[in-house]
TrEMBL record:
Protein name per its UniProtKB record: Cell division protein FtsQ
Transmembrane portions of the chain: none
GO BP term (any one): FtsZ-dependent cytokinesis
An annotated GO cellular component: cell division site
Ranges where the POTRA domain occurs: 120-188
Tagged with keyword Cell membrane: yes
InterPro entries (alphabetical): Cell_div_FtsQ/DivIB_C (IPR005548), FtsQ (IPR026579), FtsQ_C_sf (IPR045335), POTRA (IPR034746)
Region (Disordered): 1-36
Source lineage: Bacteria, Pseudomonadati, Pseudomonadota, Alphaproteobacteria, Rhodobacterales
Origin species: Ruegeria conchae
Homology family: Belongs to the FtsQ/DivIB family. FtsQ subfamily.
Pfam name, any one: FtsQ_DivIB_C
Keywords: Cell cycle, Cell division, Cell inner membrane, Cell membrane, Membrane, Transmembrane, Transmembrane helix
Length: 334
């Protein structure tokens, strides 16, 4: 061991006497520790250095602390590590196939028990707004085996299937209280008959197909149209027929010519050839002349209104022969 040594506290010598507050401070009695020499024991340390360590952090510790104060690192430690831990635990649990199957079966059993509760069961289907034949068609295209859970019903798919039927204009499908599948139908109403090479069809006001019929006499009260592409211009045909209402039962129907214009067919094989643009307006001009001069009561075969500035009248064969005979007789007499 090192020998013990006595050290004294350094003494401050002043050249001038103290004055003022310093004199009072200097006149204070000295403590015993200042009067006597201090004896400090200095021994050798067996562990560690003899000097006291520096309290300042090391460079590595300082950098680590600064790194931990970064917002991203703090969020990663507070949120990311717990999430990773949970994901790891869950992944380890479901790594075994037996556990996955057991959990899946448990979930399915709970789901089934909830879906098959009596308040979720549908027992029958009610159809309103449809005729007997249409109701049978709906039940045929939507084959449902009642009772079944409302969770197993795809209402949107059922509605799309029903609206795909030609006689159905719109449909609403919903589940009523009491376990009833309610289907509300708005049927298409036939307003015109369309004669084609494939048969006779019923069309609604938009030209949509409603049904096929066997004979024209089945719907003799409806107006008749014919020609290729006539179904695409049903609103215009209805407007022309409304204008020709004053002709009464003389109207036989409308014929679509060249998929671009209409011919109004009357009895006595008369025909009014309408233009492509504004055919109802051209028909009104013909009807105005007919009211004044009885044009359609004469031996006229066709009234050509395709050229609005130059209407043309074509007489029938008998009237043409009589006219030519009259002209020849007049010429011979001269």
């Amino acid at each position: 061991m090192r020998p013990l040594t006595a050290t004294r506290t350094p003494v401050i010598h002043r050249t001038k006497p103290l004055a003022g507050p310093d004199a009072d401070f200097g006149a204070a009695p000295k403590s015993e520790s200042e009067a006597e020499p201090k004896l400090r024991l200095r021994g050798t340390r067996f562990f560690g250095r003899g000097r006291l360590s520096d309290p300042a952090p090391s460079r590595l510790s300082y950098r680590f602390q600064r790194w931990m104060l970064t917002p991203g690192i703090r969020r990663g430690v507070k949120i990311g590590l717990p999430v990773l831990a949970v994901v790891g635990l869950v992944g380890g649990f479901f790594a075994a196939e037996e556990r996955r199957e057991a959990v899946s079966a448990y979930v399915i059993s709970i789901k089934t028990s909830i879906q098959e509760r009596p308040e979720f069961m549908v027992n029958l289907m009610a159809i309103d707004g449809a005729g007997t034949a249409l109701s049978e068609d709906i039940r045929e295209v939507v084959p449902l085996d009642f009772p079944l859970s409302s969770w197993d019903l795809d209402v949107e798919m059922i509605r799309d299937t029903i609206t795909g039927l030609d006689p159905v204009k719109s449909a609403t499908v919903r589940i009523r209280p009491g376990g009833i599948l309610q289907v509300d139908i708005v049927e298409r109403q036939p307003v015109i008959v369309w004669r084609t090479r494939d048969g006779i069809e019923l069309l609604d006001e938009t030209g949509a197909h409603v049904d096929m019929i066997a004979a024209r006499a089945d719907h003799a009260n409806l107006p008749l149209i014919a020609g290729k592409g006539a179904d695409k211009h049903v609103p215009e045909a209805l407007q022309i027929l409304t204008t020709a209402r004053s002709l009464g039962e003389r109207v036989r129907g409308l014929v679509r010519v060249g998929e671009r214009r209409w011919d109004l067919v009357l009895d006595r094989n008369q025909r009014i050839m309408l233009p492509t643009e504004r055919p109802a307006r051209a028909l009104e001009r013909v009807l105005a002349v007919n009211e004044v001069q009885d044009l359609l009561e004469r031996d006229v075969a066709a009234v050509d209104m395709r050229l609005g500035q130059r209407p043309t009248i074509r007489m029938n064969k008998t009237a043409s022969e009589d006219w030519w005979n009259t002209k020849v007789d007049v010429s011979s007499g001269q």
